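Lecture notes, structural biology module. Today: joint structure prediction for complexes of two components.
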Amino acid sequence: MAGKKSSKQANSIKVGIIGFGTVGSGTVEVLQKNRDIIRDRVGWEITVKKIADLDISSDRGISIDPDLLTTEAMEVIADPEIQIVVELIGGIDKAKEYILRAMEKGKHVVTANKALLAEHGKEIYEAAEKNEVSLAFEASVGGGIPVVRSLREGLSANRIHSIMGILNGTSNYILTRMTQKGLPYTKAVEEAIEHGYAEDPPTLDVDGTDAAHKLAILISIVFGVPVTFKDIYREGIDRLTPEDIQFAGELGYCLKLLAIARDLGDAVDARVHPAMVPLNHIMANVNGVYNAIYMEGDFVGPNLYYGLGAGRKPTGSAVVSDLIYLARQIRQGIKQVIPPLAHVHPRRDKVLVQPVQELMTPYYFRFSALDRPGVLSKISGILGENGISISSVIQKGRDLNGSVPLVMLTHEAKESNVINALSQMNGLEILTDKTMMIRVEAS
Amino acid sequence: MAGKKSSKQANSIKVGIIGFGTVGSGTVEVLQKNRDIIRDRVGWEITVKKIADLDISSDRGISIDPDLLTTEAMEVIADPEIQIVVELIGGIDKAKEYILRAMEKGKHVVTANKALLAEHGKEIYEAAEKNEVSLAFEASVGGGIPVVRSLREGLSANRIHSIMGILNGTSNYILTRMTQKGLPYTKAVEEAIEHGYAEDPPTLDVDGTDAAHKLAILISIVFGVPVTFKDIYREGIDRLTPEDIQFAGELGYCLKLLAIARDLGDAVDARVHPAMVPLNHIMANVNGVYNAIYMEGDFVGPNLYYGLGAGRKPTGSAVVSDLIYLARQIRQGIKQVIPPLAHVHPRRDKVLVQPVQELMTPYYFRFSALDRPGVLSKISGILGENGISISSVIQKGRDLNGSVPLVMLTHEAKESNVINALSQMNGLEILTDKTMMIRVEAS
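The predicted structure, tokenised, for the full assembly:
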């Protein structure tokens, strides 16, 4: 396409942006401030030709020619000069429509929309293939960390055995504050909102949905087919207490909201939940709004990628790295070198997710128990009957709401057995509150 | 090239390997064991057509058709079916000759040869451009960690302000053992040799040369032009003592062999030396044979990449990721999408390295001083005359070889002033041994 233009025009690749919020303005800022190095690296200019947003009057802190702005997304898609459409509005229906329309018009697409890719990826990946365009989505996972590219290319020689990600900066910030300052959950959430690290309310961040969206994308690249997002087990951080964080510390662990995937051969173990991580594991040092992805491949061994997982600038960096990637291809007259999920012939039709009931892992329990004889025996008896063996116990005389905390770490046990045991304990009059259960990882 | 072949042949990309040592056999092992997923991801097979090595009789622990083996490297280069030549013999002269010859014949080249790229990269990068072939060298830095790809692509939207790398696994293992077990340097080296983590003697690993080679490659990608390797200041770890590691710990630091680069605008601060790293910095947790690269970009912010920096399997993973990268291009009929140093039009002709005498950084000093009145005053006086101000002092009554250690941390000072001050102290009879000087980083 570009190759046929006159030399002056051909020196510039035209981009249209749909969505001029945080990430959109970050993207424009990168393109403006680093225009010189981008031109040096690509060989051609990358120029923003149109920006669509419902709000075209607010000040985004960057100077922009008002003629570029439109309230009509379809104007961006219809512009024949625009070769790459960047979708940054988020949400599902409109974003999907815009992306599919752009692809039908032969335009390459860059998106940061993890929810859309996790829930409707199949349709979009197929549209890219059908229309012979490239789809790039580095910004959808891990903010500025080039983890999508690393999975698609850097680790492409490996069978990826496992992924362990801290993929949501908001919940990691909340857990970090709870850990470092002993704050209760609600107080840490308030702080996160004050600092602009969380929306109010931060539902999709703290309930595991956002991290699960990102995990679904990573798993899809590993196997080359979209995973069914709703099969990924999700559990949030809102029930965690400073007491659990303190007990975890005494046992040599910290608490992280982990996104976990393990290749089981015929299925994949995929889940997002709070987990105990050993303090000497490198993931235990990922604090605040930072994200990290720890992966193990059969040849590369353990690999960690760490950086800011959100925000205008890091996400802008990821979007523009995708624009550079596509611009380099366009300059060579290429439509697609790597398919969206980095597999030309995926081996499977679909990725089966193992039900969480089948999980085998060690567990942490905190029982709120009356401080009377026979309690430990009763509880450990029920665990034993369910094939759950205990590896350590902390029992302290501390009185919390008329009862004492009884903390146990188990050896590896089956989740369905844990569910049975805890339900058998329901209604025991020696237990004064719901039992806290946290899975233990990487130990 | 491939596109013109009949469909049966076209389904396989033929590779020739020169050098069948550790990395060569790791590469073949990846191609054999992961043949299925590589084919799924590339769409075509990657087949080893010839392997050249002076030793074609030793058992490498993998089964290989003996007909593939030859002692003549030129046989690999001359084979018209081979589209990618993998150079894994290391060293300079022969490796360079083979690479240049292969490029002249229109073959793409993959190499793991950091010494060659760091010292003679210009000639090789230019040959790739002139012959319109691709050059890939992921395995030259950080073993299996895809840091070359991350710099060339993932962070391509950024001005990279700084790089801080633990790039040599051997010296990191030695320092880790000295730290964790209090071993003296020579004892830790012996252990590293026993475990196969070091050659005997491990000169280029412990004197900083290997890390400087890798740093030179990373800097060259950042600016798009080769840096002059000999201008990079290098200092090894052999003079470090368990006492210094212990004092560092008391001051809140650990000791790492760091490869450091900072963009100063008109020049680059580039150096490899032992450095004190704050214990709460994520780089302080990089232990054993692991490597890590910490980079700061103007938009992405801090990024860390971590993994195994050497060894048959991780390095094989990196080489094969390059083969996949090239195979995906070849399948599309493309010769080169990204130039070797990832810049089509580099801004500068050369990268100037700032002389280390100009460095401004805090310093650690350990003086071996006689335990008598006036010593502290004399030493701090000389430092003060040279504009060096002290931020903390540890003086203990411990008698080491008839003298006591006097440890100081300074505020930021200029290296030339430090050199002056230490030379003015030479011959002071209150100092009983050479003064230990270690630079402090990231504080």
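Point to remember: The longest helix of chain B spans residues 312-331.
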